[in-house]
Amino acid sequence: MTTPRRPLLAGNWKMHGTRAEALSLVEGLLGRLQGQLASGTREVLVAPPFTALDAVARLAAGTSLRVAAQNCFHEARGAYTGEISPAMIADLGVSHVILGHSERREIFGEDDAQIRRKLEAALAQGLGVILCVGETLAQRDGGHTVAVVEGQTRAALEGLALARPDQVTLAYEPIWAIGTGRVASPAQAQEVHAALRACVGRLGQPAKQMRILYGGSVKPDNVDGLMAQADIDGALVGGASLEVEAFARIVEFEA
Ligand code: PEP
Question: Annotated catalytic residue: which of 96, 110, 173, 193?
């Protein structure tokens, strides 16, 4: 029997790995996590770069390992050099896409309106979406954390008709904790997750069923404390997802 919010442990590989390296990492994970994947008590997902998506999706086919893209465009086809549509991603047998990652927002200038268009296009194509929200250090220091993440969440979810609660997973990723080794404390993360869950409810979305992941320097030595929090339903992991043993220990969190 699975809980209403089955823990999701997701690895965001960012711009790392040739196809050979990606396959070797997935082979390692499939071997190391065989029992965990078969049990189905936790959902495990990897998000390789676009160039390795096809190969990784083929290797993961027939297992319960989920595969995600790290981004998509909102149009289905057309003269959009360099872009990839949700249909192209779904065509690979890939089930999810990460949207609104702070690196997309900050480095590539994606705004809430663009992310909303991408979200709708991805959902229309049947992809599950991991939607990232998070504040900068200056916003946190200014006491604006909840207002910022609620604003990003509202822009993405307000008025959205979801067929199933698991179509969207939120990921709270404080920008000051991503790739910095500086992790939010379990209490800091829980406070924002509880606020986000209340916000999701006010938006008329299925707050009790929607998963909210924490992301930002999640490692084997801090995952247990984070996962013990009532409103933390999983982790979005960058650096530590590139090593089989580290990511496997995160999947095997003890809470
Ligand atoms: C991320 O990129 O989503 C992330 C959380 O990275 P890291 O775990 O390396 O901080």
Answer: 173
